[in-house]
Amino acid sequence: MNDQPLQQQQDVSSIPPPNYLVWAILTTILCCLPFGIISIIYAAQVNSKWQAGDIPGAESSSKNAKIWAWVAFGAGLAAILLWIILLAFGALAGFGLEALDSLDL
Q1: Each residue of 18-76: pLDDT tens digit?
Q2: What integer pLDDT is reported at residue 51 of this predicted model?
Q3: CA-CA distance, 46 to 61, in Å (whole number)?
Q4: Which residue has the higher pLDDT, 105 or 61?
Q5: Distance between CA 74 and CA 19 in Å, rounded?
Q6: Which residue, 84, 81, 86, 69, is CA-closest to 32?
């Protein structure tokens, strides 16, 4: 009778945690290179730690890969928003200079 819960527990633990490697690569290419590389490093550690029997280490690397992928995404999004804001201010400054040029002083 006690073999059933033990077998279920082993089946659940035989599935490795997600490594988020695809997400890490995409955030590296599309968003933010430095933080994405950190995410790739942690993602690459997940399967090797799992196969070595380091289950807590694999789960920790999975968690860190996900966190750094989110950080890379956020940094890329912040950079894009900053670029749009600076572009808007540059356009407004250009319009302001055109208005000053049209004045006869």
Answers
A1: 999 999 999 999 988 999 999 999 999 999 999 999 999 999 999 999 999 999 999 99
A2: 94
A3: 6
A4: 61
A5: 19
A6: 69
CA atoms of 40 and 68, how far apart (whole Å):
9
Residue 15 gets the label, from left (phi > 0), alpha (psi -120 to 50) or beta, of: beta
Which residue bears the tokens 């029997």?
Answer: 53
Which residues neighbour 27 within 8 Å (Cβ) at sequence distance 6 or greater? 35, 36, 39, 69, 72, 73, 76
Place of tokens 């280490």: 57
Are the CB atoms for 36 and 25 separated by under 8 Å? yes
Domain map (residue ranges) of the chain: 3-102
Rounded CA-CA distance 73/89 in Å is 24
